[in-house]
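Our platform keeps sequence and structure together, in a single record for each protein. This encoding replaces a full spatial description with a residue-level series of whole-number codes. We quote a single record here, exactly as it is kept in our systems:
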Amino acid sequence: MDGNALSPAVTASITLGSILGLLLIALIAGSLCWREAHQSQGPSVFPILFAAVLGRLFKALMNWRLEHGAKLGFLDLLAGSTSAANTILTQIHIGLPSLLGLILLVAWAFSPLGGQATLRVLRLQSSDTLTTNDIMYMTNNITYMTYVSGSLGLLGTLINGLFNAALLGPRRVKESPVDTWNNVKIPMIEYIAQDQQLIINSTWLPVPQDDNVVYSSLIGIPISTMPSDSRSTFFMETSYLILDCSKIKMVDQEDGTFFGSQAVVGTSSANGTTADRRFMSVVTEEVHYSGIFTNSTASKNISCHRDDPHNDMDPRLAAYYFWSGSPEEGIELYNTLCSFQTTYVEVEVTCDGPGCRSTRIRNSTLANPARTWTLFDGDRTNCLWWAWFMQLFMNSVTVGRSGAPTPVQGYFLDPNSPASPLRNKGQNPMQLDARTFATRFAQLLNSFMLICAGPYAVSYGFDGDMPGADIEQATKINTAAQSVRSFKIIVCDPAWLTVLLIASVFLLAAGAMSIALRAKRRTPELALNWSTVIRDNPHIPGADTACLLDDLQRSKLLRHTSLMFGDVASDRDVGHLAIGTKDGGASSPRKGKAGDPRYSMRTRVVDTAERLVPVA
């Protein structure tokens, strides 16, 4: 078999392979349903392939019918049906609406349907998977024995560094639902509940998703690292201190020397401790209220709440003394009396990946101690913790000049710029309302308490950069977290899948039929080109050569022949319009008389009328 004979076979093989590939796409589309998707792509080669296959089928059918004899209208309809639009126009021009034309239109209708089916059979859809995992979060309900013993070691530097970082942090961090180390902050339910009855009834309250939330602390609760590709929700029980303070008043300097003026400033004390004397015991009418000033005299030693923590008791009271102003312009001494209580809450935390925030909060429904019982109460060890905690708290932020305000005092005046000298200079703390002062003071105390409860956990977390660093420094509680992982899956549309399968099977049948018709053909294949038109034309030299070749091969052989449509009998009274060579010769077409094309049209009409011959 020569090379020319291989060309149709190769073309047919390529066409059949393309059809099988398209059918394979339909089958794959069905198998990919409900699979996870990583990309979105759709094939769009169907209309091109469909036109190529159907066009070859109509051409093969036309040649096969011509070989066996067929009506001219039938052949012209097949020849003109190169598209759906041409099928309609051909029927209109021929004036032959028929069942064949309807069948051809239906066949061409599979082209847009199949093309749309390849694009719409598969689509992406979101799907979720729900898993439940045990996670941990830190609690501040520990014994704090490390601090009571005074053996802080490196912990003191770490605790003070974390507290100062939180105290001096930017506004966006202080208003954020998480702290600098991505720990979840707990809102103050007292600022969220519009009705006290909502707190009493433990009603779930939504936490506003804005920057106006009042948080109980600058430090959040350390939690386990959450999955980065999931949305997780869990609940945790926690507590925080809440203060109720009297209105700030100015203290007479002479009256302020009850414990000594130097002790009030915080530079020294009778027993040698420093910077812990801004918090003092209160003695009124021989009733002693627990304060920070624990070691001035034996009579001023603090007492503990050793009652049953579930019984009601009087809240712990303490007075806070502080300076305001500057040494250059004068300083004044102020004080306030605050009561300490504990708020127990249950918080719903929602995490988008590792980023978490409190979304709902309610009053705890557990059997918690009385609100007047705090972490400073209990056994003798915890009573000592009150003294040590306040000493550590007051020593965490110090200044090198007597009477100069510290960032702690600056936080009361402006939480967003506690270290700004312009903010603190000349500010009168009596302008602060009692609730604002109590809230800011509680935020600082809660922050320091959380840091002491787990300094390594606060800074590194449970899965942080220092494995084992939080060992024996944090107490963790397990809770169940529900994680919803959202991902894209490939979904197949049953209707479009059916259309694609039908169109693919139809296309496969058309391709197979085209190959079968070509195999049965005994005559050369005629194409819709000029090599077919001039076959055996007596006006074109060489047109009767190579009559056994297909028209595509004849076109290649005669590609240099110049053709012209015109009058080939200009020497006669009645002309004859035909296609001939342009190069000259006895039968070459020429223009009509005086070059008038209307003459040629006239002679063609007359000639056609005179020369019509019935077709056998």
Observations:
- Residues 1-121+493-523 form one domain.
- Residues 1-6, 36-40, 255-302, 591-616 have pLDDT under 50 and may be disordered.
- The two ends are 37 Å apart (CA to CA).
- The first strand starts at residue 35 and ends at 36.
